Amino acid sequence: MKKIITENPQDMIERMHNFVFGKNNEIFVRFVDKDMSLVEYIRKMDKELYDIEHDDSYCNALDFGDYMDDDRFTCIMYWALVGFGEVRNYLKYYEEKLGNSNEPRPIEEWGEDYGDCLWWSFPIEEPPYCGTPLDCNFPSHVTHFTRLILPMESENLK
Question: How far apart are the first and last CA of the chain?
């Protein structure tokens, strides 16, 4: 898995993937020269596009969402950016937790805490073996492994 979350985007693609982010329970928009809270940005755009001035009581992120219930472009953009920011935060968590799970690692780096993995020999000429070096039938010809990431069991699947 190629990591796409970064706090310092360098090119257009990285900026696209990291344009919106969460910090201190609020969503921010990242511009080239500065970061701006989403609430501040939408208030600014509502003023420029629709000549709407928001009451200062709607200046915090929790109350402001209650006001974004119209069909204006800025309302739709607000909800899309909030959703994108939340998804980015989940992706950041998984990228940090899992690391690059598709990169093959040498057998010497395997540890019992990894559990079952996919085991390969290079060049790849056969399907991988799934298991651990502790298995009695562990193949002697494999040289590398990739982590086997299992989905978490959801409460509604039990």
Answer: 29
| 30 in Cβ contact with 18 (< 8 Å) | yes
Amino acid (1-letter code) at residue 65: G
Tokens of 65: 């969402």
Residues 66 and 44: their CA atoms lie apart, in Å, by: 17
Domain boundaries, the chain: 12-98, 105-149
Give the C-alpha separation, 149 to 2, whole Å. Answer: 15
pLDDT in tens, 89-109: 988 887 877 666 678 999 999
Least confident of 35-44, 93-102, 148-157: 148-157
Q: What are the residues whose beta carbons fall under 8 Å from the beta carbon of 57, sequence distance 6 or more?
A: 63
For residues 150 and 104, is the Cβ–Cβ distance under 8 A? no
